[in-house]
Fold:
Amino acid sequence: MPPFYITTPIYYVNDAPHVGHAYATVNADAIARWHRLRGDEVFFLTGTDEHGAKVAETAHEHGLSPSQWADQTARRFRDTWQRLNISNDDFIRTTEDRHRRTVQQFLGQIHDNGYIELGTYRGLYCVACEDYYTPEQLHDGNCPVHSRPAIEMEEENYFFRLSAFEERLLSWYAEVPDAVQPPARRNEALAFIKGGLRDISITRTSLRWGVPVPWDDRHVFYVWYDALVNYLTAIGYGSDDPAWTKWWSAVHHVIGKEIVRFHCVWWPAMCMAAGIDPPRHIFAHGWLLVGGEKLSKTLIRQVGEERGTPLSLTEVAPAALVEQFGVDPLRYHLLRDTPFGSDGEFSYESMVSRFNADLANNLGNLVSRVARVVESKCGGIGPPPSPDSPLATAAAESVSAAQAAWERFAPHEALEATWRLIGAANAELEATEPWKAEPGPAVNAVLGSALEALRIIALLVSPAMPASAQEIWRRIGLGGSPEDQRVPADAAWGSYPGGLHVETGPALFPRRRE
Ligand code: MSP
Structure:
């Protein structure tokens, strides 16, 4: 089984999980589930980023210690992922001992290799970003991301000699052209490198809430250097050589577009400095926007106030959407509505209309109508499919398009391809109208083929909507789970055995009021 290691960024614990975070995690989860279906050995990692000035500040504002605050918020992320049926194999917290040890070991190695030096750093710092900016990058002295003033800071720091890696990074980009995707993000990172790299400060003395520098404990590592190392901690870097080498060769980092510089410039350079390969693949997605701006706690509040209508954080909190729409419809919307890689507008209204169009009218309708006609024309026993049904070609086309799309991290296209098969199956029923015909071989062939299409549809939707896929599987009389199947072999036309009891049941996706 080829290994497939997929990671999400680890989320800052200064914010509660919102739909923007769910967007990133659900996409990574569906890709992980697809690879399990392919038969890969998958390791899927997510977690929380708990050190740094911002978290310490937020904890203080709430009258808690940083570790009490981190415990509380990490739990909310964990609970949210459980609620959304996220299949992560591990959940890493940067305050864990295993992580502290790995950070010290990995950065200690870079230090031993001569790429970390002491110096003085002066600069303009945004506490919210945990990052320094050059005056040109600021907008009227304000951070370009948070629009709040950057403050003057001067510190004795250890510096990572990033400048020593300019040439090596450029050769890596040339040798592995698909390492950073999509191409726009690759070009952005390349342009940054070509613009010249300066050494970067990687420790702080102004703060205790971090991982101590092992050779000088007056310093702690700057939160980003600590955070990036999580990808190595979880696979046993420094403690389990066979495991980490296996997983590291198959790593895929899913990240948001604003953290490209950290992941596509600094991180590969750090890996090179420590003597390991840079990450194999980094895919940067866009943002989910509300009213054209990145979804964040402040923004949600602000937009709500401006509109004077009830857009609140709790409305776009994943749990609230789950309550209104269900887990799978939320997952489906996040995967299907926005091409992975581009920005997308999130609105309640579009969620309702996509729910009604794709789930209630298309998929849900297909499932219930097939079951009803099997009941009335075949006494509830599903017939086998016909080998020369027109749906056989439609299914083969959808399976191969969906497979290609999942494999290039394009869940929206994979689902589009899947819905073409759903559309074809509904159209075939409309054309043949088995509900009007006399029971007999012609009706059996149409219904058997519709059931076979449903079997394949269940397989193809399972990474996006695992519970609904399981329910379709059960209703058409199949035992076990779609997740025990292997694609593409088990998605080939003709495996629905027939002779199974097909169950009618309540609508899978009852229509919502527009
Ligand atoms: N802690 C760092 C990541 C360290 S990884 C070694 C961080 N955390 S974050 O919580 O601010 O963001 C985590 C991820 O969530 C980012 O990839 C970011 O793009 C994503 N999202 C946060 N809001 C988002 C949207 N509104 N839309 C899509 N993704 C968004 O950065």
User: Anything to note?
Assistant: The mean pLDDT is 93. The pocket of 5'-O-[(L-methionyl)-sulphamoyl]adenosine is lined by residues 9-12, 20-21, 23-24, 49, 227-228, 230, 255-256, 258-259, 287-288, 294-295 (CB under 6 Å).
